[in-house]
Amino acid sequence: MPTPLPAPSHDLSIGDLAAATGVSRDGLRFYETRGLIRARRRSNGYRAYPPEAVELVRYVRTAQQLGFTLAEISEGMTQVWQQPDIDAAITALLREKLVAIDARIASLQATRDALAARVGMPCPLASA
């Protein structure tokens, strides 16, 4: 009786993950060194990513587009996955980021106002 074939692997190669997410292979390797995604090594030494890595990389990219740093994403992911309600945990992170952005906008507006007040002064860098 022939030995049964092993179940086909659903893992993704780095090229497959790159194609599925639009992130370069170098970008994926960087995410891996930052601990944002994980791969196991196949017997040939190549990376093998689990299918859920596609959604995880998309999560990271979306968070980056929303202004989160990779450090914030890494820290936030650890917190989020430990919560019973992941959606509520992500919403809380988004609210915190929104508060930080609003504070930054207010600070930039104050700086802009101070600069605008000095335009046209005889010596713009003199104490106001």
From TrEMBL:
Matches recorded under InterPro entries: DNA-bd_dom_put_sf, MerR-type_HTH_dom, MerR_fam
Pfam family, one: MerR_1
Keyword Chaperone among UniProt keywords: no
The name this protein goes by in its record: MerR family transcriptional regulator
Domain HTH merR-type: 11-79
Highest classification ranks of the organism: Bacteria, Pseudomonadati, Pseudomonadota, Betaproteobacteria, Burkholderiales
Alphabetical UniProt keywords: DNA-binding, Repressor, Transcription, Transcription regulation
